[in-house]
Specification:
Layout: E1 2-6, E2 22-23, E3 26-27, H1 28-36, E4 43-47, H2 52-55, E5 64-66, H3 76-86, E6 92-96, H4 104-116, E7 122-127, E8 130-138, H5 140-151, H6 160-165, E9 169-173
Parallel strand pairs: 1-4, 1-6, 4-5, 7-9
Antiparallel strand pairs: 2-3, 6-8, 7-8
Amino acid sequence: MTGIILCGGQSSRMGTDKGLLHYEAKTWAQTALEKMNVLNIPVKISVNLQQQPEYEKVFAPQMLIADDASLDLKGPLLGVLSAHLQNSAEDLFILACDMPLMEPGLLKELFALYQQSKKYEVFIYTNNKEPEPLCGIYTSQALKKIVTMLRQDKLVRHSMKFVLSQLVVCEIALQENQKTAFRNFNAHAELNGL
């Protein structure tokens, strides 16, 4: 398994690259990487091509996975499938960089569930019955299925929620006291909560 920190978004509402924003003296991407390191798995940073030079100032170039130009996609799915195509045998543990309050214990819980059960293709949390797709484990089998659908023009929507509807998903309902960890920050006005 490989961990993937998703940083490749356009950050249009924030107006600046979210992965390079600072939280407690580290970039959000570094914070996410540290949280993922509790799992003792290799971790890479997913970026778009325009971001790559800036991220190379913070991370070793071999840690970066740039979006695959052959994929006609936008949004998080582009980062996820680009990472999959770079190493299609690996299951991927996805974490978006814009959840700086994520608790490492929640990552461990999901990882433990994945290790115990092989009957699911995806492992995610749900928040009030809604999926949290940007902190989850996606098996290589699941991602191969989505790439095939994309190439056959059968992926009618490119949202992560639609992708989940096509797969066998193990869902863990978040407890009320865990929901803060999934708060994502999209605009400067929201940063007051940090």
